[in-house]
Amino acid sequence: GVFLYHHLQQKVRSAEALAQKYKQQQEALSAQLQVVYEHRSRLERSLQKERGEHKKTKEDFLVYKLEAQEALNKEKQDSMNRYGALSSQHKILKNQHEDVKKQLIDLQLQHNSLKLEHRKTLETHSQKYAQLQQEKDSEVTNLQDTVFKLREESKLLRKAHQEVHSQLLNAQ
């Protein structure tokens, strides 16, 4: 009986030691499981936070995309308006350019005809001037001849006058 009692007590101690070992393992596993649960809880909170941030970022992006699209459409409309204005201004300037070109051609033609007319007038004046110069030279020559003749005549008249004067003095 003692032997059996002793044997059973050893088995109980051995079972208690084994139970103690299992209890320590369970506590260790429990602690590890607690760490895992806490880590999982942190991960879930972090995931929720990330999802919230992702949702907010997605909403911000959609708002940004909408604003960018509106800004792009507005810029496009402004560009089209500016293009239309520049296009009509270009047409106006092109028409003005054509008008100025026509005026230039008209003025060049007028200038050429005036130049021709001026040349003809200049030639006519040159001919008249040459003719008048010849007439003047001829008249000057005639006048010089007349002056020479009148001087000669004046000399003769002075001589005659002196002779008459001398004859009068002699007669007296």
TrEMBL record:
Coiled-coil regions listed in the entry: 5-60, 90-142
GO cellular component: Golgi membrane
Keywords: Coiled coil
InterPro entries, sorted: GOLIM4 (IPR042336)
Identification of the protein by name: GOLI4 protein
Classification of source organism: Eukaryota, Metazoa, Chordata, Craniata, Vertebrata
Gene: Golim4_1
